[in-house]
Amino acid sequence: MMGWRRRLAAGALFLLTLAATPVLADDRALSELLAPLCAGASAERVAAVDRLLDAVETGAAEPAWALRALEAVGGRRLVCAEGGVFITSGTGVIDAVTSAPGLADAVKAQGAFVDLRLRPYLDMGSAVLRLLASPGGPASGAALGELQKRAKIVPPGLIERAAAEPANAALAPGLRDVMAVAALNDPDPALRIAAIGRLAEAPSERNRTLLRDLSGDAALTSDPVVAAALADGITRIERWLTLGQVAASVYSGLSYASILFVAALGLAVIFGLMGVINLAQGELIMIGAYATFLVQEALKSVLPGLVDYYLLLAIPFAFAASGAVGIAMEVTVIRHLYRRPLMTLLATWAISLLLINLVRVTFGTQNLQFNVPPFLNGGTHVFADFIVTWNRLFAIGFALAVLAAALVVLRRTSLGMYIRAVTENRDMAGCVGVSARRIDLTAFGIGSGLAGVAGLALSPIYTVNPAMGVNFIVDAFMVVVLGGVGSIAGTAAAALGVGMINVTIEPMFGAVAAKVIVLLLIIVFIQFRPEGLFAVKGRR
Amino acid sequence: MSGLDDVLIGPRRPAPRRGTAPMVAAVLALLGVGVLAAGAGGAGPSAYVLNLIGQIATFGMLAVALDLIWGFAGVLSLGHGLFFAIGGYLVAMHMVKVTFLATGTPPDFMLFMGWDRLPFYYAGLESFAYTSVLVVVVAGLAAFAIGYTAFRSRVAGVYFAIITQAFVYVAMLLMFRNDTGFGGNNGMTGFTEILGQPLADRRTVAWLSGASILAAALTLGGSALLTGSRFGHMLIAIRDDEARLRFLGHDTLWIKLTVWCLSAVLAAIAGMLYVPQVGIINPRVLAPDLSIEIAVWVAIGGRGTLTGAFLGAVLVSALKFLLTAVAPDLWPFILSGLVLVVVVLLPNGLLDIRAVLASRQRRGTP
Fold this sequence. Notes:
The complex is a heterodimer.
Chain A: H1 14-20, H2 27-38, H3 42-58, H4 63-74, E1 78-81, E2 84-88, E3 93-95, H5 118-133, H6 140-149, H7 156-164, H8 172-183, H9 189-201, H10 205-215, H11 218-221, H12 224-274, H13 281-302, H14 310-313, H15 315-332, H16 341-363, E4 379-383, E5 386-389, H17 390-412, H18 414-424, H19 426-431, H20 436-458, H21 469-483, H22 488-509, H23 511-528
Antiparallel strand pairs in A: 1-2, 2-3, 4-5
Chain B: H1 2-9, H2 21-41, H3 47-72, H4 81-103, H5 108-112, H6 128-152, H7 157-175, E1 188-189, E2 193-194, E3 197-198, H8 202-228, H9 230-247, H10 252-278, E4 280-281, H11 288-301, H12 307-326, H13 331-345, H14 353-364
Antiparallel strand pairs in B: 1-4, 2-3
Helix pairs in contact in B: 2-8, 3-8, 3-10, 3-11, 3-12, 4-6, 4-10, 6-10, 8-10, 9-10, 11-12
């Protein structure tokens, strides 16, 4: 019985080795294993699948051989006839046991129908045998998925063997998880408790449902040790799930705050410096997004190999496009209105109207199609149900980079020193030789350029169309009002606060209510600190 | 007191010119009577023209209301659409309630929600008098709440403008919801009658139009009186130097609040007159853009002059009616161009054009 030698290491050698397999005396035993699979009641065929898997476990049968048989059953190609069990294919017939050419007239025969009760066992058996026959093969990922779906009926011994295969190392954690689920129904309480503990260590909605289903089973909960382990496992999973939800909200709050920060930073710098609220800031964001789009399209036609990196390559273009528009605004209009800040509101609104309609006439009103680069698709699973998605991580990282760059420019360069000087006291800065007008122009250009970069960061997440700026402008203003005039730290803190409050309220009361509540909170806050979170000390 | 004032702020400044506002108000009143007569007599312009004049008159009234607070107290609101909408929504609710009592079926937007009766806040709205009182009270209270919290913490200038805009934006988001009983994104429409008169009738159109013109005339005349009074001087003082006025012992909070609430109530009344004429109200009225447009009317006409604000509203909205029908794509360009030219070249609006031209001429002659 044990005469089979383990010569089959990889599935590639499968057919070759089958042909060379010597015909042995226990062929009859193997043939008897297969015969019940040919036909009969589905319960009997299910039992036959189990027996076949048992035979593989004891070493009586080779995994590759058993796999061939099970796949033949699934394809209705396993036929029992006079003289043995045969596998038919389009070209010929082979003996299922010996692989010798079989009766030619069996070619046209068809195996028995596979019903819904048998199908899961066949799929599960094929999957586990595939992992054993060709460990680490191309289909092993799919096989693991299949086993996870059928975890309640898998043979633990075979799974353990598959997990021990060095080539399956990448799948081992998943396989252990499958084993744990299988062991939940094990008659041995010690194994059950171990399985419960193992599932509790990998918290997810699915494992919670599994354990909850189990705790409804009266036969199980009658054993106090198992019941206690179960209750403990459920509490542990729930604790982690709650943590996971909190982490997910914090993450989405952070990403929202990042977008708010990048959108509001340019506004805050300009407002701090000149007391000018730029109502066209949202449209500068829109222009940045359109510049990004143009860069993407240009790359598509000129350098298709670099299209995946368009987001990085477009940074200078988005900055320059919006910055140029901003400088043009400053020179033609805003320069004349420094003493009349309320009029700048109307003037910049008119400019925003102009920009929206210019873009609408040029590009049309439809949403732009952005190719999300592959490195921004998907995410990584951290723990419980908390997934870090790459596109949001990109937004957060981007905001951090912008924050760092802004801090360096303002704190470490002479331009930054001049900007701070003019922000604190315009006249005095002028007296000591700072050209306030030139600083204004530069700062306006930088603030506008920042808006353009914000548009770039938004393009993989939001819809881009001529009217997109309108959606950001009120939120961005609230951040500026809350953060205080001209303070980068204040803007960052306010963006973070507004973002976090928003994601806390939104699941409870909805998006509109979240906006209303945030606005009311800001109004209440202003009652106590009219100058914002971080007021710059200065005389104006 | 006045002696001390003389010492501290110098001799009393000359009272500002009464301006052209009373004259324009008188002309308007005549026009209003004319429209009413045209409605009663069945002669004169078509119902369409009468309706258009009436709508534009409510815009003029709205602009005068904003000019009171911006041109005189120096407080710019970019959210006056909120008060306009309060008046509009309340009168729309009144008409919906009247229709409901007559037909027994709620309007479509409520049937969609599966409601078979009107929500509780429609109670009593079948009475026009109660509705009118409610318009004044709700608009006044909303303005008081916003104004008190803002002025008390000395939120002013650009900050205040932005916060009022945030309010109107949030109100728009709320009104876009379909479960509030105010019609959601489609708004309320399909009104049939007001005060027992069918809205489709030319006489009713003329009557509403005349009422709007008379209301605008009253607003203009009353505002001229108010701004010429001691209270008006206080407003101008607040605009020019609020800190000094505060040091002199005046409580500027209540002065600002009074004129702010008055302005809001006037805007609400304008909305109340507007909606029956246009036949629909929806959350678009609350769009921040439309509220900014009100400020644009005032800026184009010239703020702080009342007449200018009124004429600016009439001019711009008449142009808009004309151009959105003829060349809708062109209108935003014309509007933004107009604003930029006025804001950069004519700081006091179109009424300034003569003075600017005159000074150009003077500079031109050696």
